[in-house]
Design brief:
Elements: H1 3-10, E1 12-14, E2 18-20, H2 23-28, E3 34-38, E4 69-71, E5 76-78, E6 85-87, E7 110-118, E8 124-130, H3 135-151, E9 157-163, E10 166-171, E11 179-184, H4 191-198, H5 211-216, E12 233-234, H6 235-248, H7 266-280, E13 286-292, H8 315-321, H9 326-343, E14 345-352, H10 359-367, E15 373-376, H11 382-391, E16 394-395, E17 398-399, E18 402-411, E19 415-421, E20 425-426, E21 446-452, E22 457-464, E23 477-488, E24 492-505, H12 511-514, H13 518-533, H14 538-556, E25 558-560, E26 563-568, H15 576-585, H16 596-608, H17 611-618, E27 622-626, E28 629-633, E29 646-650, E30 654-659, H18 661-668, H19 678-695, E31 703-708, H20 715-718, H21 747-760
Length: about 775
């Protein structure tokens, strides 16, 4: 089965592509029935159809799909989910076996509808800018924001909040005399206070400037902005005013003593932004884009005190006592995240600081709303500038993003929904197909995602509800339908429907293990492990990962009892233990040498990305370039570090080019500049070209590291390698390679221990 071809068509990767027919057999399979689903998978050959979908009667509301039975004579179709008979609408009167609408063709298992319903307003972009930064940092940030105005559609709405010791909400309607509302940075403002102070809310009704013209042009439906038109205007109307405000923006004027941090009111600024947006633009697509140059040091959401002698919290501090401010700050930002997600607004977090700024406390803002998280050392770096620009990437005239999305799941009665792990919150829809077992965000069959991109991928988990006594008909299939409704940047509401079917099989059937997709399964289990690690101790999570791996190998391995040498796994299971080994060592579960902010960033990316990118994070690919042949993938192992090769490592978060000692000496001697050493020049250029290809589309932009063997930055490579050659052992792969100074268990010892436990029947 070509899993990648299915993913290209439907955006779906299933852990099991043939389903065990009973609940007990599914439980014995260890890896739950689950899938990774890319909501807006780009499909250039399948443009949206511009008519309303045909839906089943309430309460089912499943959408017509290729797996429905149809009666062309009686103009009827039978819903495969609830088995109700439905009449085709009048405009389907010409339907026939040789004249079917697209949604009934087998290749249209995924179809997107352009609905007649228009979005109430254009997408809203609220910039929340930290002014407690150095002069060069602020200038670079202002330049990026001014450039962003040219990347936004002319009809998009924009607003500006700046914060330091105080919070300022800028009016954009006064070109000659800039005006702003000032809020105390140390105070927590609730929605009612913000509405009263700004004169916005349900009691004030007016359209945003330009909305009347857009309405007449048929672009957007009429929407009351409840008095917010002073603060939020279309780009084409306020570009000059906003550019002037940004150009004249100064650093926070409050003086800072040498032994103190600036008083930074990040929490109060976010409270004002979220409060204004939910009061003026409820259930309308929008993004609150936060640019932080340091930690919040006063007011709600503060993560550290203003005294420099007080250090930022570490993982140890959080585990020991929750840190002095950690729990209170995290609770505050979680409250804002719930409100933003309920109103349909994403929160993006962009950092430009060498120190932590409090992403660990603020992570819910991005994780629960589908926002971006970018971790950069400075606003002057390429990482920040290019990542920020890629947020506004376009497909034609439209931004490559969707707003205010909902995902609903419908299943046949043999399956129940356990939950979702990804960038969303519960939609609170508890139906008959919702399982009592929760995995991730459970107890619902619908979720809200305030923003989605073509890369946004969620993990959806199921359980088999069928009991042993309820035999299934031979050849029957389990169906899952995923319905995504979202606001397109053109103002149109779109509905994408993906319907997949998988055959049922007896638990003893060889078809079930033969259908196992070890790559998707590894990513889906990694999401569960990292989700657990957010609440539980890492040691307990690692024990759970080991226990699940042992049980899976006992179930699907071939071995003789008490004979580790006899242990074998089928080819489609053979890499799974390797994935789990690298997951255990990864920055997702091992927090040593990572700050809480970095850990929050890494986990955020894992919850957003598809199978391929997630596997790159777990087990990075390593390419070797040498004179012996063309570039080739090599083992992620210390034996691959040879003096006469160049290595290219892609961890998703950084791309590294490593030069062996001999190659580095030749380069430093300038041999590659001489005509007779053209082959050395080509060898040095090849990994650079390949690295540039990896940098093109990735979001956020990864760090780019070039290093030599035995130099300090080579540690980035060494930390990812399996230490098969270390100071106390010799590699099984023979001589060569560099010894790694570590006490970490190498993969050979890990696999040997795994085999010993499996053949003995142990699972703990």
């Amino acid at each position: 089965m070509d899993f990648e071809a299915i993913e290209d068509q439907d955006g779906v990767r299933c852990a099991w592509n043939v389903l065990p027919s009973t609940r007990i057999e599914a439980t014995r399979g260890i890896v739950p029935v689950s899938m990774l689903y890319t909501l807006l998978k780009e499909r250039a050959d399948y443009p949206p159809v511009m008519y309303e979908p045909v839906m089943c009667k309430a309460p089912c509301r499943a959408v017509l799909n290729p797996y429905c039975q149809i009666d062309v004579r009686g103009k009827l179709w039978i819903c495969p989910f609830c088995l109700q008979r439905n009449q085709f609408p009048p405009h389907y009167k010409d339907i026939a076996q040789n004249n079917l609408p697209p949604e009934l063709h087998p290749r249209f298992t995924t179809i997107e509808y352009g609905l007649s319903r228009r979005s109430p307003v254009p997408p809203v972009f609220m910039f929340v800018v930290d002014t407690c930064v150095e002069e060069n940092e602020l200038k670079a940030l202002k330049d990026s924001l001014i450039l962003a105005l040219s990347l936004l559609p002319p009809t998009a709405l924009v607003g500006l909040i700046t914060f330091g010791t105080m919070v300022q909400l800028h009016e954009l309607g006064h070109q000659d005399c800039p005006k702003s509302y000032v809020f105390r940075g140390a105070k927590d403002y609730n929605v009612k206070q913000i509405q009263e102070m700004l004169g916005i809310g349900a009691g004030v009704r007016n359209m945003p400037p330009g909305a009347q013209q857009q309405q007449q042009a048929g672009q957007f439906a009429p929407q009351q902005t409840y008095g917010a038109d002073r603060f939020v205007q279309t780009v084409e109307q306020c570009e000059f005013t906003l550019t002037s405000i940004l150009e004249q923006l100064q650093r926070d004027p409050w003086s800072v003593a040498g032994d103190k941090r600036p008083l930074r009111s990040t929490g109060a600024a976010l409270a004002v932004a979220v409060g204004m947006m939910e009061a003026a633009f409820p259930n309308a697509g929008g993004r609150i884009m936060v640019f932080g140059g340091g930690p919040a040091t006063q007011g709600p959401g503060m993560v550290v005190g203003p005294e420099l002698r007080e250090p930022m919290r570490s993982h140890h501090d959080i585990e020991k006592d929750g840190g002095r401010y950690y729990r209170k700050a995290a609770k505050f930002y979680e409250g804002l995240a719930r409100r933003a997600a309920a109103a349909g607004h994403a929160v993006d977090l962009f950092t430009g600081c060498l120190d932590q700024i409090g992403l660990a406390e603020m992570k819910s803002l991005a994780n629960w709303t589908g926002g971006h998280m970018v971790l950069a050392d400075s606003f002057t770096t390429t990482i920040f500038r290019q990542s920020f620009q890629r947020v506004f990437g376009k497909d034609g005239d439209a931004l490559r993003m969707g707003f205010n999305a909902t995902l609903e799941v419908q299943t046949t009665k043999e399956l129940k929904v356990c939950g979702l792990i990804g960038p969303g919150v519960s939609g609170g829809k508890k139906t008959a197909i919702v399982s009592d077992t929760e995995i991730g965000i459970g107890s619902t069959s619908a979720w809200r995602l305030a923003a989605v991109t073509p890369q946004t991928t969620v993990g959806v988990y199921f359980e088999v509800a069928n009991q042993q006594s309820q035999a299934l008909q031979p050849g029957s299939r389990g169906l899952v339908q995923l319905i995504t409704t979202y606001q397109h940047t053109s103002g149109q509401t779109r509905l994408r429907v993906t319907t997949i079917a998988r055959n049922w099989a007896e638990g003893s059937s060889p078809d079930v293990p033969a259908s196992f997709d070890q790559e998707a399964a590894a990513v889906l289990m990694a999401r569960i492990a990292v989700f657990k690690a957010e609440a539980d101790e890492v040691a307990g999570v690692l024990h759970w990962v080991d226990r699940m791996l042992i049980r899976l190998c006992q179930k699907f391995g071939d071995f003789r009892r008490d004979d580790p040498a006899s242990f074998r796994l089928a080819p489609n299971f053979s890499m799974y233990p390797h994935f789990m080994y690298y997951l255990r060592r990864s920055q997702f579960l091992q927090v040593f040498n990572s700050s809480p902010d970095e850990t929050a960033f890494y986990r955020h990316c894992l919850f957003q990305e598809d199978t391929s990118n997630s596997l790159t994070m777990i087990q990075p690919p390593l390419m070797s370039y040498g004179f012996d042949g063309p570039p080739a993938p090599v083992l992620l192992d210390s034996v691959s570090m040879k003096p006469d090769v160049i290595l290219l490592l892609d961890t998703y978060f950084y791309i590294l080019i490593w030069h062996g000692e001999t190659i580095a000496e030749w380069r430093n001697a300038g041999y590659h500049e001489k005509p007779e050493y053209e082959n050395l020049k080509l060898l040095l250029e090849a990994p650079v070209e390949d690295a540039q290809g990896l940098l093109v589309d990735r979001m956020p932009v990864p760090r780019y590291v070039v290093c030599d063997q035995n130099r300090s930055q080579a540690r980035f490579l060494v930390s990812k390698l399996n230490p098969s050659t270390s100071y106390n052992n010799v590699s099984q792969y023979g001589g060569g390679g560099e010894a790694v100074l570590t006490d970490d268990v190498n993969i050979n010892s890990f696999i040997s221990a795994l085999k010993a436990l499996v053949v003995k029947g142990g699972s703990s």
